[in-house]
Specification:
CATH superfamily: MFS general substrate transporter like domains
Order of helices and strands: HHHHHHHHHHHHHHH
Number of helices: 15
Structural class: mainly alpha
CATH architecture: Up-down Bundle
Number of domains: 1
Length: 384
């Protein structure tokens, strides 16, 4: 019962997070931000998470889980109110997105740590599947609500709406309606080195895979609204197309447990990355909204299982009492990717167009998927 309450509150919060992703891009373009400035604005939400995600995880290990969640949710609300208070100012978006990223990372790392703490080794995959299924529902609701709010109201009102949504679950956590598990103390002889965990052999593969996955997710979130805008699609249509991606996330995560009973983790990941690569290849070829909805849906089928699997792998391979820190390092890798992608590919896209951006990512995902297949094949040969 506690799991589902946490997932429900997470859905509400993540709806504002996902809505902000599409809102900030469209709002900045509406204020005539050039590609470089737009990349800086989008990347600013990943700057502080890139620097402080590991610290946020370590903090949740040390002081408990409730306070970081509450502060993060209220901080997100404040960040989203800023563009309403200071309308039509591009520099305010830089400040807002920076505060948004800092607040968001404390909430997300701690929520993931909470889900892991509520589970056992036997139920962990199921619990994280439920949590990421909730994230998928938010991925659907956030762009949909944001797109229609922009078209029927205005950008500043939409920021207020998302800010209120982010604060609602924080109020529930303040009232202590959810009993939190006590944090596990780390072993005395463990080192405190960030680098030691980052380079730990059992975790390194998880961090690299997670970074590759987030490259694809980050490119799609950043570039597709821009691509849709250049095609003349309305904000509502772009929101619907992005929401199709989220619907596929929901479906794939509902099927994840069944797939894991049939196949190994590497096989599932390799297949998902390959499907996503194919979808990325076709995006810049088509400009019809219905076809783009189908491609977005197929991509979601591929990417849907990747993130929950990487979270479970990171949690299960964490040293005792350092689960939050390891989840934080995973997000540090992810946010580094999300910080660099808009800046690097924003400039590339403005010079070379959309084809190189989407196709280069398709190649990266395809090679990564193949390497997982190859690893699986070599492993099977070793056992013969």
């Amino acid at each position: 019962m506690i799991l589902y309450i946490v997932v429900l509150l997470s859905i509400i919060y993540q709806t504002s997070v996902r809505g902000n992703t599409i809102l900030v891009t469209l709002y900045a373009m509406n204020l005539h931000a050039d590609s470089t400035y737009l990349g800086l604005i989008v990347s600013s939400s990943s700057l502080f998470p890139m620097l402080f995600a590991a610290y946020a995880g370590r903090l949740s290990d040390r002081i408990g889980l409730r306070l970081p969640i509450i502060l993060g949710m209220f901080g997100t609300g404040v960040a989203l109110f800023l563009p309403y208070l200071f309308k039509n100012q591009l520099f305010v978006l830089l400040i807002s997105q920076s505060l948004f990223g800092l607040s968001q990372i404390f909430t997300i790392v701690t929520l993931q740590n909470l889900i892991g703490a509520l589970s056992t080794e036997e139920t962990r995959s199921k619990y994280f599947a439920a949590y990421t299924l909730g994230v998928s529902i938010s991925n659907f609701l956030g762009p949909l609500i944001t797109g229609f709010s922009i078209d029927h109201f205005q950008y500043s009102v939409t920021y207020v709406l998302l800010g209120i949504i982010s604060i609602i679950p924080g109020i529930f956590f303040c009232h202590k309606v959810i009993p939190f598990p006590t944090t596990i103390k780390k072993e005395i002889n463990q080192k405190n080195s960030f680098v030691e965990l980052l380079l730990k052999r059992s975790l390194r593969k998880t961090f690299i895979t997670s970074g590759i996955i987030l490259t694809g997710v980050g490119l799609y979130e950043f570039y597709f609204p821009i691509y849709g805008k250049t095609l003349g699609l309305s904000a509502s249509t772009i929101g619907v197309i992005v929401s199709c991606n989220a619907i596929a996330y929901i479906l794939s995560r509902l099927l994840m447990q069944w797939m894991l009973r049939k196949f190994k983790e590497e096989t599932v990941l390799g297949g998902c990355l390959t499907i996503s690569a194919v979808a990325f290849f076709f995006i810049p070829i088509f400009d019809h909204a219905v076809i783009l909805m189908v491609i977005s849906f197929v991509m979601g089928l591929g990417m849907g299982c990747c993130q929950p699997l990487s979270i479970v792998m990171a949690y299960n391979r964490s040293p005792q009492g350092r689960t939050g820190e390891v989840l934080g390092i995973r997000l540090t890798v992810n946010k580094t990717v999300q910080f660099l992608v808009p800046i690097l590919f924003g400039s590339v896209g403005s010079l070379l167009g959309f084809f190189p951006v989407f196709w280069s990512n398709a190649v990266l995902l395809l090679v990564s998927g193949y390497s997982l297949y190859e690893k699986k094949t070599n492993s099977a040969t070793t056992h013969l």
